[in-house]
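Let us work through a complete example step by step.
Step 1: write down the sequence.
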Amino acid sequence: MTITQLKYALAIAEHKNFTKAAEKCFVTQPTLSTQIQKLEDELDVVIFDRGKKPIELTDVGQKIVNQAKNIVNEAERIQDIVDQQKGFIGGEFKLGIIPTIMPTLLPMFLNNFIKKYPKVKLKIEELTTEEILSRLNDGHLDAAIAATPLESENVKERPLYYEPFVAYIPTNHRLSDKQMIEVADLDLDDMLLLEDGHCFRDGVINLCKSFKDQMDDNFQLESGSIETLIKLSNEGLGMTLLPYMHTLDIKEKQNVNLRYFDEPSPAREVSLIYHKSELKMQIINALHDVISGVIRGAIAFSNVEIISPLSK
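Step 2: predict the structure and record it as tokens.
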């Protein structure tokens, strides 16, 4: 049994197809098939049910693949040990960022990080929280930046900052005359929301429902981007809530539509998250230090109440 064979098995389990798995492993399909057959012969079990389309794991195969993930992770830790001993911070690093954080945070730290750690090859993807957790568990991401807490036993969370919710209220809205607002003022019936799949949407809904037990889940309008929500609000279609960092980039003439909450301000916790196996910790620590350093000048709220990003 070899580490390579286990990696091949993990690839087949993920793609449910020998040809696709071979492509991802950069080997020919016959080479991959031969190694899997050798692994099955050695263990005297069938790992994959090849008669199913797509290919499925057998019961024992599922247990083997689960253990293979642990073994491959631990094998990769050896290189981590060597890198840390040498003080080396480099190599490929796959980072996921949720959509409502990517456009505001990434420009703030990326250039600084690249200059400080030129040997790190960052691969950054915009992903939903659900996709991030799946890829962290499968080993296809090294870390991610997301709203927390996520209550995942396989993921560790290191808070970076707390980002308050800010109301965007157009002229002639029922709340437009208020200088400061309270959570009790909110009503989902006139709230523009991000479409399903965004954890910021779930945070807004959780915030509103914490003060109103019975609410109608038939929302007026939903959109895929915060910029679109602002435009729709300007058309008088309702108010919306924005993450604080997004308010820093809106047009100056739109600042009059911003309303802050009475303290403690409802806020989301933004964290650097990674698998509990703690691989590539030297790069994770470097990322945390760089982001924490640049964020201090942009956001300094402390009296906040963290709103869960989880759908309830």
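Step 3: interpret the result. The mean pLDDT is 88.
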